[in-house]
Write a structure and sequence with these properties.
eight-stranded mixed sheet, Rossmann fold, 623 residues, disordered C terminus, alpha/beta, Ribosomal Protein S5, domain 2, Heat Shock Protein 90, binds adenosine-5'-triphosphate
Amino acid sequence: MSGESFQVDLRGVVDLLARHLYSSPRVYLRELLQNGVDAITARRALAEGAPERIDLRPLPGGGLEVCDTGIGLTAADARELLATIGRSSKRDADLGGGREEFLGQFGIGLLSAFMVADEIDLVSRCARPGPEGQRSPAIRWRGFTDGRYELTELADDDPAIAVLEGAPGSAVRLVPRRDAEHWLAPDMVAALAEDFGGLLPVDVALEVRLDDGSLARRRLSGDELPWRVAYPNDAARTVALASYSERALGFTPLASIDVEIPIAGLTGVAFVLPAAVAPTTVAHHRVYLKRMLLSSGVTQVLPPWAFFVRCVLDASGLRPTASREGLYEDDLLLAAREALGERVRAWVLDTLTAGGPVARRFVEVHHLALRALALVDDEVLDLAVTTLPFESTVGAGTLRELAERAGDARLLFTRSLEEYRRIAAVAAHKGIVVVNGGYVYDADLLERAAARHRELGLAAAVADDIARTLDELEPVRELEILDAVVALRATLADQDCDILVRRYDPPELSAVLIDDRDGEHARAAHAEAATSDDVWGEILTGLTEPARPRRLILNDASATVRALLATRDGDVRDAATRSLYVTTVLASGLPLQTAEVTLMNESLSLLMERALGGDSTSTKDDR
Ligand SMILES: Nc1ncnc2c1ncn2[C@@H]1O[C@H](COP(=O)(O)OP(=O)(O)OP(=O)(O)O)[C@@H](O)[C@H]1O
């Protein structure tokens, strides 16, 4: 069998890797810094005290030179490593992954420079001595976008060597590509270097020309990880971390949570957002790998429920993807994500258990997050019962507080906002405690709380719960309005809605609607009524028969309803009944059908005609 190699069109590969792998040309600087840092790491493995410096030098004509005090390259290295795409000195041949101490591993990083440069010109001298102990000769390697390269060994008197200042190391010079000059401008270089390399442990500096013409180094890196700095006390640390969050993330945190996951070589801080965000928000975290910024948009380090924190992390054990803009989804990342989630969760539990101002503020701002978490986490649910506020007919309160208010009675909850609206006004006046379960997560949360905390006496409200809030009329009054009720029922028969009259508070409320389209509640109430012989049974029977899906329950305490029941004008009575029906449907939060809108318009027209027709002349006369 004869082995043949792929024929590769270099121009295509260079273009593909340089321009389609990375999301922005800005990463060119990160790749150059990374090569410098790795070269320095390799050199320090040879000679402990070797200098650790990277100089960024803007060139006249718009180019940029990046000089490092690293291991350097021999001509053979350059031929093998720089001129072979995908070849890296930093890969672990046995394990396939990148070697622990280095940032790079794929052997493609240098190509990213072609996003901003037409030519990469590298001068280098290897720190490793030759076979006879002699100093390695300096080399010059020039690579072009079309895949050509030139490699020369430099004579000791070659002026190109001057840049190395007689020491080992490398100088990479970029000749700007047309239209990409701004990526190489000094301010841009400083901003990129600070963003990517601000936390690097090596000395990265930009060369700047001072007013007197002399050159100076503006240091851009070397900061200790902010969470690793030794502060005089906890308060000073809190202030420093808060101000770091302002600079790096753009907000003053409500709290900060230290995180450490040894298996991933990970340390950092999770900052709690000071304001609420939608639960659908995808959280972006700032992740460093071996203190080089991977990306400020990493989404994979926390579980989705932790949308209320933003992390700044540094990890040595996690692996980057080839574009180095995200993390490779391996078992270690999975374990790290779980551990980080656990850490944030533990903070939530500790904070809520301890109480105090941070806990109060957290519940106030991030109650949605807490509800989301309580849905999937029993321990958080237990705490939520005593910390999370719910809206109810007796005001806002935690479930524990509301259960106390309900006393021996059941603590009811509705599964939707509409249901709550329908039931709330009447229940409030009766002192019945009903919790609004209509907001995001709440219905499911209340169901879970009801099942896990039976001591709360929490139960979903059904139609007969509403029935219990309404008083029967005196028999005399029943008789009095009998004919009127029959007429009213006839009016709404074509709406498939029954009419009943009860007396309840508040008197301003003319009617409530029981909407029981699936009929389940009605059947349950009916069955209950059939087996009970007390007065409730009768009321329930009254409410559930005939079993039309909707029942409009008029309030005999309302002046409007009393007037309606008393009127002898059939047209007005019909129109008023229909418009009362439609407004009650609306007030219940139910959608209006086209037929109902028509009904409303016709009824209102008639009522207005009657009202205006009677008044128009007298109004004039009154003036
Ligand atoms: N400044 C430098 N000093 C010494 N060697 C270098 C330098 N820059 C590049 N090299 C060598 O060239 C090789 C290829 O570099 P390149 O940036 O393309 O890939 P890499 O850093 O190995 O991996 P990655 O694709 O993950 O960045 C490196 O492995 C390294 O051996």
